[in-house]
Amino acid sequence: MFDLEGYGPSIFKGAILTCEVAFLSLFLAIILGLLGATAKLSNTPPLRAVATGYTTLIRGVPDLVLMLLIYFGGQVVMNAISDWLYDEFGVDYFVQINEFVAGVITIGFIFGAYMTETFRGAFLAVDRGQIEAGIAYGMTSGQRFRRILFPQMMRHALPGLMNNWLVLLKTTALVSILGLADMVRLASEAAKQTHEPFKFLLPVALVYLILTSISEIAMKYLNHRYSAGLVNKS
After folding, report:
1. Which DSSP state fits 14?
2. pTM of the model
3. pLDDT tens column, 89-99
């Protein structure tokens, strides 16, 4: 069953690429989510409008459409800019959008919108009295965020963060439409060549299940860490 007929090394490399796309996209999504949540909770109307437009647009358009728009549409925009620079200034400059970068940016951009709502709700769930206590002790805004707001917020954000991460992990399979040689694409090609789909697609499913199991363990650790003093560590 596990004789992959010489396709094993290439599928393994595809699995590494899938992990790279997933973790880099998660990092970008968390950064965008924190920025988006901060903007939505700010007292500046333009910031709130931009953040609301971002979350509304991303959550209303299918992931596949966004991925194709950013990759193929982005390349069209880059080509137009290159043509304009050459016609107006004689600058011969061409940018080719990398498939890996496009995949990471698209997935990170999409899930940044979902993370925005997750973090926004978590920030609102923090007891304001703790913030006021930090102010009373003379903490700066940075100290209040690092010592009070972020640890308290994370306890409320972890369930939603975990859900978003698991969906993001499965969404990485979409990068194959950009031409990236991830494990799903390589396994599909091997299955087409050998006419044995179960032999190649079942190991791919197993890899995703392993990543999910590791994520569950990591999330349990984080939940205990950020719930210290609030729940029993049984």
Report:
1. H
2. 0.84
3. 877 777 788 88
